[in-house]
Every structure is written in C-alpha cells, then in structure tokens.
Amino acid sequence: MNEENLQADLNLSAEIKLYYDLFVPESAAGNSPLLIAVHGYGAHKRYMMREARLVAPKNFVIASVQGPHQHFRQTDDGYRIGFGWLTDHKAEESVALHHKFLLDLIDKLALENLIDRQRIFLYGFSQSCALNFRFAFTHPQIPKAVIGVSGGIPGDL
Questions:
Q1: At what angle do helices 91-111 and 127-138 cross, to 10 degrees?
Q2: pLDDT surpasses 90 at 156
Q3: Global pTM value
C-alpha cells in the first residue's frame, strides 16, 4: 500500500444542537443573576436542574446545560442514556464547544432581557468542574463565581 497519497485527519464542520433547560422565577425582572448548571459524566440536564434549584437563591434564573456526547449506561433494570462533555480524541475541541455553548447561552439570555451579565455563576459537578474552571480562566471577566462539587482544577492550569 502506498502511504504517500494518504491524507489523514481531514475534517468537515457540522452543526449540532445543544440542549438546555431553563428555569425563570416569577420574580425575574430582566436583571436576574444566572446560575449555569453543568452536569457530570453520565448524567443529564434534568438531574443538574434539580440540584441547582436546591442550592440557588430564589431570584436566580437557572440554565441547566447538557453535554453533547451521549452514551448508554447500564442500570439495574436495563440501560439509560447518559451524557458527557469530553472525548479523549481531540479533547480541546470538546473544551471549545463547552465554552461556545456557555457564551452563546449567556448572549441569548441577555438579549432576551432575562439576566444581568455582571452576575453569572457556574455550578459544576465532577467532570464539568474542570470545564467550568477552564472557562473561568479563559474568560475571567464573565463568571462572578465558580462552584465545583466533587471535581477539581485541571492539572495543566
């Protein structure tokens, strides 16, 4: 086989849909703080919304975002779908997608006059802690605080 003519790792870009759930309190007045809840590996946006609503003050708008990488997880009675944020292959692309998701979401909610851009808080569990800290170090002007549960700061930061 002649390897001279092989072109490797070519790519095309494709649009994907990124999903989130949104809780807007009745008291929201266009200047509400925003808590962005980011689930851990194998979980989903509904789980993280439940957790976020337990910890967020009553006046917070909450957006619970879902990782783009789905997989099956075995349960006692079969399987369920879980989601993750990172892949081993070209992990930097997964990180960039997470950052773009959060930036686009913040822009959308601000344009809809739901949130105050000066009061953005990130709440992550496990795998997403590293992503949220990366986001905060890359965009230090955006989050007012980062809450990490059962996760840590990536070793390369």
A1: 70
A2: no
A3: 0.91
